[in-house]
């Protein structure tokens, strides 16, 4: 499967705030794996911008997060970025998810860190997140830390050989007993 589809990131209230087109590398059960090379365009209210990194993304139709692997131009892993979000949905060639503004970042050799807590607090106020939903998002962020700590990066071929995308990583499970996730605010 190498279809081009649109991904839409929505706010809690369903407003589309960012979108981009991707190549679907494969679909396995409830998992959809996509890829974009460096320079792909991302659109938001301010207009388009070109991403500086390659991105392989993992969207599940039944998990409360999605995972983005970013790669430097030499093909080395740069950052794992996990959005605490609704499970992805697929409708008429559009893959979408609601972004709840709380994220986890993991860089090679460093522990996973919860980021964007200031954005999450603002979203809590703006959208009047109920207390049980806030607790759910925080629990998902902790789960995302465990996912990040147990993540095995997919391979990415060097761009000099003319092919960015190697085989995507298989579905992973997290291991128990990993380090507690750090907390950082205002970045990501």
Outline the structure in words.
The model is unreliable at 158-188 (pLDDT under 50). Strands 1-2-3-6-7-8-10 form a seven-stranded mixed beta barrel. Strand 7 and strand 8 (77-85) form a beta hairpin. It has a single domain (4-183), classed as Beta Barrel (FomD barrel-like fold), CATH 2.40.380. It starts with a strand and ends in a 5-residue tail after the last strand. The protein is of the alpha+beta class and 188 residues long. The longest helix is centred in the C-terminal third of the chain and has 20 residues, at 131-150. It has helices spanning 117-127, 131-150, and strands at residues 4-10, 16-28, 31-36, 41-44, 47-50, 54-60, 65-71, 77-85, 89-91, 94-106, 113-115, 182-183. It comes from Carboxydichorda subterranea. Keywords: Hydrolase. Residues 13-146 form the DUF402 domain. This is DUF402 domain-containing protein. InterPro entries: DUF402 (IPR007295), FomD-like_sf (IPR035930), Ntdp-like (IPR050212).
């Amino acid at each position: 499967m190498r279809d081009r589809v649109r991904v839409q990131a929505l706010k809690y209230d369903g407003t589309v705030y960012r979108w981009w087109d991707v190549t679907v590398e494969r679909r396995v059960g409830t998992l959809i794996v996509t890829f974009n090379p460096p320079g792909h365009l991302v659109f938001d209210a301010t207009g388009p911008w070109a991403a500086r990194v390659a991105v392989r993304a993992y969207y599940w139709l039944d998990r409360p997060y999605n995972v983005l692997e970013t790669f430097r131009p030499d093909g080395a892993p740069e950052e794992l970025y996990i959005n605490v979000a609704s499970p992805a949905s697929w409708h008429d060639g559009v893959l979408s998810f609601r972004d709840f503004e709380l994220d986890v970042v993991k860089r090679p050799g460093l522990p996973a860190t919860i980021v964007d807590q200031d954005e999450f607090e603002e979203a809590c106020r703006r959208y009047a997140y109920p207390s049980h939903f806030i607790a759910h998002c925080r629990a998902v962020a902790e789960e995302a830390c465990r996912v990040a700590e147990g993540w095995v990066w997919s391979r990415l071929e060097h761009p000099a050989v003319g092919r960015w995308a190697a085989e995507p990583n298989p579905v992973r499970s997290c291991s128990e007993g990993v380090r507690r996730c750090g907390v950082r605010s205002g970045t990501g």
